[in-house]
User: Fold this.
Amino acid sequence: MLFRRREPAHFWDRVRTLLWPRRSFSRSFQYFAKRILRLSGSPHAIAAGVAAGVFSSFTPFVGFHFLLACALAYLIAGNMIAATLGTAIGNPITFPLIWGATLGIGRFMLTGVRPPDDTPVGLGHMLYHLDFAVLWGPVLKPMIVGSIPLGLAFGAVAYLLTRSATAAFRNRRRERLAERARKRAAYSARATAGS
Assistant:
């Protein structure tokens, strides 16, 4: 099969690659950026899709980020593939930061005072047993409330950056193609004049 490894990667190799890329984080970021910039669609659709993916990554609904991103992208006329790629902002490295920020901001928005630095007593027990009724008040409700302003802010930044980057990428690409067409036309004109 084309582009397949001769020897399949072992489980631990796949886990290591998932947590730490083979080349570097900057190269992985460049790969995702190029994938997004080369998508077909208007700059608005691509940027709206990325913004929907970024917004959904800030919600505490971990298993549903793709579905939420695609639903939001559909509502705001965004690109679905860009929405799924935009969810990459939420990864094992950024989730602790995102969850801590959403929990703190949500507690502040709900109570109006600076949140205490301690976690709810028995949080590990609640998560292990998935006591939703007990988890709702101290953890989930503040995270949902806190995810809305953070997700909107980061989604707006992602929208502006992606829209301007997509427009600039397409302008440069159009100029390169026009330059190649001019060179090809000049070459063919010289070739027909010489024969």
Summary: The chain has a mean pLDDT of 81.
